[in-house]
Amino acid sequence: MEAKKTKEFEALLDFLRDDRGFDFNGYKKSSLERRIQKHLKMRDIDSYELYQEYLEVHPEEFNLLFNSILINVTSFFRDKPAWDYVAEQIIPKILASKRENEQIRFWSAGCASGEEPYSLAMLLAEALGKKEFLRRVKIYATDVDENALMQARRAIYSAESVKNIDSTFIEKYFHKEKDVYQFDSELRHQVIFGSLDLVQDSPISRIDLLSCRNTLMYFNTETQIQILNRFHFALRDTGFLFLGKAEMMVSRTHSFVPEAMKFRILKKTPSINRANSENAKFLIQRNQKDETNTMKKVEVWETLLNAINIAGIVVNRNNALVMISLAFQDLFHIDQRDVGRPLQDLEISYRPIDLRSLIDQAYTTGETVIERNVRRPKPGIGQQVMDFSVIPVPLKGKEFDGVLIICSDESLTHKLQEKLQVTNQELETSNEELQSGNEELETTNEELQSTNEELETTNEELQATNEELETINEELQSTNEELETINNELNQRTDELNKSSAYINSILSNIDSAVIVIDTHHNVTSWNSAARDQWGLVENEVVNKSLFDLDMGLPVKALKEPISASLKTMERSDVELEGINRRGKKMAYTIHCSPFVSNDNQILGAILLIDPNSISN
């Protein structure tokens, strides 16, 4: 039973992804299932399969379901000590790293109804002044809930919503109108709201501060790491990540280091390349400036590479090997006797990597070509992992003496990285349960807060509804009197319609020709007795059915063109057809197609008058 329920739940998530493009598979299954179950109880539906059928019939239900799943609990300056730290420490650091006219870019991911990005806007306006803020600042605010984004764009908040804001901020950045507060319209234009799925959509780039508070806790571990990698890409090298108090992600990624762990503020770890080949490149390029003779350069390179124990060779412009360092000899088992030989004659030219193509690329671009993680089998140690760097050596202008090829053995580094990864995974596993429990607790608190807000809103609505009901009761009494008058009028009109209907039916039944009336969708609305006698179909069998679907011995599909012509020209269209009557007799029919219009010239359908003529055998 439990397996069936799980299968139905996963099928529902797949349906939401395929039909609406929203993938919930990255969310924590326990909290996601709890919120969907709560929504199903409100609908009095006891299975996921039945609810999926309900969604297929009621597409408007999707928005209500998403509102239940995507809990939008937020407030201005939520967890105030953390915001104080951002204002006093983080924002000054960001501003100090900027040039005078350089743009400042913040991103609020999972912004809900907008309180968080507007909090950032107020802090930046305080630090820069309003004029500089308008000139230099862009704040991007994203969420997947379109209803929440609509509310955020309006920037209108209740007195309850702004209660945590300092009174001086309210006076400077809000305009009070009746019982609501409107955020400053000029600052509002610098906050850009948009729909963005953190799991599927590309992140915004070149961000100085990325705020994503109590959003990651709804996702499973794998999805959290995926999102954090995107955040790392989005941030500048000097950027900061501002998480919620329930989120503790440092142990799961090396992309960030703590800046203020108490307040869940992290700093991006820049990508740094410390490969020995790059260091050697700089050393060699420096020596190249001091030497002009090619042979002297080779001697310097050989001395330098041997001194710092780097495996390298020099290949001249004629593709001849002119230098081999000692480390390279040990690594690939070649010696000084190979100096002077063409590179293509040596195994190293094609194994473990095609050096000739890398050399051609270096000559073409004039830049260093690096190929990483090249693997080759080595007896006793399994696989050896190496990095190759091909550095073009300039002669003068755009010409080159040759290339310096450096190989670094990264096998030990890779093994240590693998061991470190295993250790980190073990550490993460031990930390996951505690972290998961903390996030589940915070999620539950969010849900309870959301429910409490809903109850308060419901109570206010009930009070207003009670007052409305009293007014409606009075209106109903007045409406009841009006309905009695209308009822009398309707009875009178019904009598008139009955008389008109009897009149029309009497006319149709006394017409010798078969009469068929169809609507604009070609469905039969009237079928007289002559038509019944001609083809044996009574009115109840044909009314509300398409004329072209009737099996009546007449090739009705041939009437499509005459009917269309009559409706288009608003004139009668005649056609001759052969058919078979209900007795099986072959007949020739003259069919007159006329438009059926109302008093105000609105096309209601078509009238077909059909005269039968016997065909002599």
Describe this structure in words.
This protein is an alpha+beta fold and 617 residues long. It has four domains: 68 residues, Chemotaxis Receptor Methyltransferase Cher, domain 1; 189 residues, 3-Layer(aba) Sandwich (Rossmann fold); 134 residues, Beta-Lactamase; 104 residues, PAS domain (Beta-Lactamase, 2-Layer Sandwich). Helix content is 47%, strand content 22%. The protein is built from 19 helices and 20 strands. The strands form four sheets. Strands 6-2-1-7-8-10-9 form a seven-stranded mixed beta sheet. A five-stranded antiparallel beta sheet has the order 12-11-15-14-13, with helices on both faces. A five-stranded antiparallel beta sheet has the order 17-16-20-19-18. It starts with a helix and ends with a strand.
What best-fitting shape do the alpha-carbon axes yield? extended
Q: What does the average pLDDT come to?
A: 82
Low-confidence parts: 272-293
CATH architectural arrangement of the largest domain = 3-Layer(aba) Sandwich
Helix content: 40-55%
Q: How do the strands of the widest beta sheet line up side by side?
A: 6-2-1-7-8-10-9
Content-based structural category: alpha+beta
Q: What percent of residues are in strands? A: 15-25%
What is the CATH first-level class name of the largest domain? Alpha Beta
Number of helices: 19
Compute the gyration radius: what is it? Answer: 40 Å
Count of the domains: 4
Q: Report on the biggest sheet.
A: 7 strands, mixed
By CATH, the superfamily of the largest domain comes out as Vaccinia Virus protein VP39
CATH topology of the largest domain, by name, is Rossmann fold
Distance between the termini: 72 Å
Number of strands: 20
